[in-house]
Write a structure and sequence with these properties.
Length: 66
């Protein structure tokens, strides 16, 4: 199915999102900050990007702008 990138600095929230997406058959990559999200998007473009607004290094809005 789809490749999803989850950028979330709260491990519990990230795991919850990952579990639901994987249960629906998606491939999920989780990163813990905005800079890692940008790096991962540049390596492997996801079909969907789930962003936390308040993350370290770069927030979710900055990641969207980049």
């Amino acid at each position: 199915m789809s490749r999803i990138l989850v950028a979330e600095d709260d491990p519990k929230q990230a795991e919850l999102i990952r579990r639901y997406a994987v249960a629906e058959g998606h491939t999920v990559t989780v990163v813990g900050d905005g800079r890692a999200a940008v790096d991962e998007v540049r390596r492997h473009t996801p079909d969907l990007l789930v962003l936390d607004v308040m993350m370290p290094r770069l927030d979710g809005l900055d990641v969207c702008r980049i």
